[in-house]
Amino acid sequence: MHIMSASTGLPGNPPWPESRRFDSTIDFDIVLPGAAAQTWNCQTHFPNGTLPVGVAACTAPAGAVGSVAFGMEVYTGLGIRRPELSFVLGVERGVAEEQLSGEVIITANDPSESSSYLTCLGGAPFDGLRCQIGSYLSVRSELVIVGQ
User: Fold this and answer.
1) What is the value of pTM for the model shown?
2) pLDDT in tens, 124-147
3) Are strands 2-3 and 86-95 parallel, antiparallel or unpaired?
4) Which of 29, 58, 131, 145 is the right S-S partner for 102, CB 3.0 to 4.6 Å?
5) Alpha carbons 129 and 120: distance in angstroms, whole number
6) Which H, E and C letters describe the chain, residue by residue?
7) Per residue in 13-52, pLDDT tens?
């Protein structure tokens, strides 16, 4: 995930100039297990400080059948936080008549929370925050969504 931070990263903390503002983005892979494991790529962008509305289709690997899509909803079970850093990730998988879905709560930067899969760190000025799974401010367990 890549999001605008509260500050630009410049000395004096000036506000973000309009020309340097950007949408939040999420980009991740889903590995579907099986005899021939498939990796689907899921990505979308949305206004800073929000989450995407509805579901977004994931890109299928060559030869894949069916569909995979994801959606995100605000999670407030641990208090009010920035939406991009506290959400429920839902995934849907469809092949012919079979539909599977599952979801997982994802939070950031607190390894004492079992849902803290993301570590989000600030970068160079005007780069905002970049988040990744499985770094030192996140839990060490693999992010697994079980479809039902």
Assistant:
1) 0.92
2) 999 999 999 988 899 988 899 998
3) unpaired
4) 145
5) 6
6) CEECCCCCCCCCCCCCCHHHCCCEEEEEEEEECCCCCEEEEEEEEECCCCCCCCEEECECCCCCCCEEEEEEEECCECECCCHHHEEEEEEEEEECCEEEEEEEEEEECCCCCCCEEEEEEECCCCCCEEEEECCCCCCCCCCCCCCC
7) 899 999 999 999 999 999 988 767 899 999 999 999 999 9
